[in-house]
Amino acid sequence: MMADTSSELDETPSIECFQNYTAPEVFIQGIAGIVNQEDVESMIIAQKEMLQRFEKTNEMLTNCNLLSTSHLKTTSQELKKHTQMLAELRKDLDSTFKRIAAIKSKIKVQYSDVQKSILEEKQKELEQKTVDSSSSGSASTASPYNSDTN
Questions:
Q1: What is the dihedral sign for C-alpha 138, 139, 140, 142?
Q2: What are phi and psi of 141, to 5 degrees?
Q3: Cβ(108)–Cβ(115) under 8 Å?
Q4: Would you give the DSSP letter of residue 141?
Q5: Residue pair 29/21 in contact by the 8 Å Cβ criterion
Q6: Contact 127, 135 (CB under 8 A)
Q7: What pTM, to 2 d.p., does this model score?
Q8: pLDDT tens for residues 22-64?
């Protein structure tokens, strides 16, 4: 029986051979013996490929950001110019409408009698149109329900 126990002890690694290593190093060495080296290499290759893809994507996004920044700069400058132009146009239109209103008031004062006669003529024309349309429209809008033949 003694020979059997000594051969079993020889197969298991002794604690003395791990005294120069720390506990995590011993653990990693134990796992390294379990893991298939081909699987580790294929994972490393896959990680490198993904890293290359991420670097390309990052570069593309950086270029996109630079392009967007330049477009934003030019567009904001154009927007500023257009905004200033619209403000100027509004001022011009306001002054034009004020001038028109002033001219209208002067005309009312200077030519009040002519304006009254023009308004009276327009009013007569409107009355004539309403009379014409009501007389011609009454015959065409006769309803069969309003007849005296009951």
A1: positive
A2: -105, 20
A3: yes
A4: T
A5: yes
A6: no
A7: 0.44
A8: 888 888 888 877 878 888 899 999 999 999 999 999 999 999 9
